[in-house]
């Protein structure tokens, strides 16, 4: 085994832990906020829908890299300084929750209207109708796009490297630079190949699960 492999592997493992934690936080926050906002998008109140729609359209319409730059570089100008990990988690969560809200809204509105009318006829208030009748049925419809969003967010964590977060991609880049300076050989192919394999192993099973669920639920 080449002498450079163990220290590089250890360094990449540190970056992988950061990537995994960032993905877990971003996915959890996106689902929690997105389910709430997507459900509220089905309220009869036009004001509530307009406010949430503005949130969704703003953060869905911006590239993630622009959101990260805004949070990390622009907010400090007005006195709001955040560290790299927090900035990355907030940026990914804003984008993810906006997309998740659209997934939930579409799933809720795809439930036959008769289900809502039947629940209302039983005297159930709106929160009870959503909790016991609509959301359980909407969950089945939302699962395939939800898994697709999880895959997308996991892949997009690599963009956190642009603001200096030591994720697995940034760790790979620094390892390549260090090996180039010390030995003259970048070893870029095996290092970046290892990063590719990590993302492939994580994302491929989820993609296959999403396709399987889509076929089965259809």
Helix run count:
8
Runs in which pLDDT lies below 50 for 5 or more consecutive residues are none
Q: Taking all residues together, what is the mean pLDDT?
A: 90
Beta-strand content: under 5%
Helical percent range?
over 70%
| Biggest sheet overview | none
What is the ordering of alpha helices and beta strands?
HHHHHHHH
- The rough form would be described as elongated
CATH topology heading: MetI-like fold
Multimeric status of the protein: single chain
As for the number of domains, it is 1
Structural class: mainly alpha
Transmembrane segments: 20-43, 64-90, 188-209
Main location: membrane
Membrane topology: Multi-pass membrane protein
Domain ABC transmembrane type-1: 16-210
Give a verbal description of the structure.
The chain has about 220 residues and is mainly alpha-helical. It has a single domain (about 5-215), classed as MetI-like fold. Helices cover about 80% and strands about 0% of the residues. The chain is built from eight helices and no strands. It has helices at about 5-40, 45-60, 65-75, 85-110, 115-120, 125-155, 170-185, 190-215. Helix 1 (about 5-40) crosses helix 4, helix 1 packs antiparallel against helix 7 and helix 7 (about 170-185) runs antiparallel to helix 8. It is elongated. It starts with a helix and ends with a helix.
């Amino acid at each position: 085994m080449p002498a450079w492999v163990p220290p590089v592997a250890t360094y990449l493992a540190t970056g992988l832990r950061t990537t995994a934690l960032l993905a877990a936080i971003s996915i959890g926050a996106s689902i929690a906020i997105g389910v709430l906002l997507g459900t509220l998008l089905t309220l009869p109140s036009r004001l509530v829908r307009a406010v949430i729609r503005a949130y969704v359209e703003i953060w869905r319409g911006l590239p993630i890299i622009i959101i990260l730059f805004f949070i990390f570089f622009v907010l400090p100008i007005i006195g709001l300084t955040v560290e790299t990990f927090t900035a990355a988690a907030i940026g990914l969560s804003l984008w993810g929750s906006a997309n998740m809200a659209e997934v939930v809204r579409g799933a809720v509105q795809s439930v036959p209207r008769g289900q809502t009318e039947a629940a209302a006829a039983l005297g159930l208030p709106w929160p009870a109708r959503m909790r016991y009748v609509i959301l359980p049925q909407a969950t089945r419809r939302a699962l395939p796009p939800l898994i697709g969003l999880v895959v997308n967010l996991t892949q997009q964590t690599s963009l956190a490297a642009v603001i200096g977060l030591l994720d697995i991609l940034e760790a790979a880049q620094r390892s390549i630079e260090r090996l180039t300076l010390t030995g003259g050989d970048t070893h870029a192919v095996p290092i970046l190949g290892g990063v590719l394999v990590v993302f492939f192993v994580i994302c491929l099973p989820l993609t296959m699960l999403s396709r399987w669920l889509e076929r089965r639920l259809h």
